[in-house]
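User:
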Amino acid sequence: MSNLNIGIILGSTREGRVSPQVGEWVKGIADQRGDANYEIVDIAEYNLPFLGTTDGTEPGIAAWNEKLDSLDGFVFIVQEYNHSITGALKNALDMAREAWNNKAAGIVSYGSTGGARAAEHLRGILGELLVADVRTHPTLSLFTDFENFSVFKPAELHLVNVNQMLDQVIAWSGALKTIRA
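Assistant: Predicted structure:
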């Protein structure tokens, strides 16, 4: 079996966001493993219109679905806004349907409480999209893993959790690929 393709999805489009720092950190850990092809997928690059304000023909929508189709699994970089995920991430999730189906996902979240509430909301959405989310969930604190809330400086202890999450994402992505074939 060829290597799996895992997208590390940046869940924010906000100016000054820190998700690219977290995503690059996860990708650096993942790339050292050599067990899959990992890539950053930045929803901001797709210029997705808001659901309900479009006829669905914008090129960003087709490109987004094509990218998702090319992936076997996901790692979501999720920040907590008002106890949930960002509107941009929810919109990106809603701009596809079948492209999500029968794939696996891990979640790395951050916020004042480690982004735990956002991750739990995301789990419910992923269930509806037929995405199997894995159990291990690295949570990052804005108070201890970021300097001045903007420069990512993760504690060493997160390395174990990220690797355990990736182990699970790879196992489930491989298993689910067999039913998509």
